[in-house]
Design a protein that fits this description.
The C terminus is likely disordered. Helix 6 crosses helix 7. With 136 residues, the protein is mainly α. The termini are close together.
Length: 136
Amino acid sequence: MGDNPDAIREALTAGASGISRKAEDIRDTLEMVRMVAAGQTIDNQELAAAISSDRGFVAAELSKCEHETLKFYATGFTRGQIATRMNISANTVGTNIKRIREKYAAAGRYAPTPKFRRQSSPAPNHDSPSSPTRSS
């Protein structure tokens, strides 16, 4: 589901602390599990891209600096590369990413997936397609 921003946003809204691709090295996945167990969140480019594509949230909730950080991070730049481009420290980039994630969680954003639309519509729509099959 890493290539499906709606599914990632839905997972974030449900309380996910991060995502791990099934192609990840098992050692990396175990380290992520340890981090989550210790109360940390896992921030990566897939999560950043999912949040970045939520245009209403970005426009309403993020500072100019946070928006710029998110744009670079979501497109694949490393924290060091972002720091150089923005003329800030890598620690500030990390702080911006953390604030973005916190703001997203605090805003209680939802993913407008077909499943969500069906659950929140007042009357059933028999013309709507069934839920798409998701692959991990």
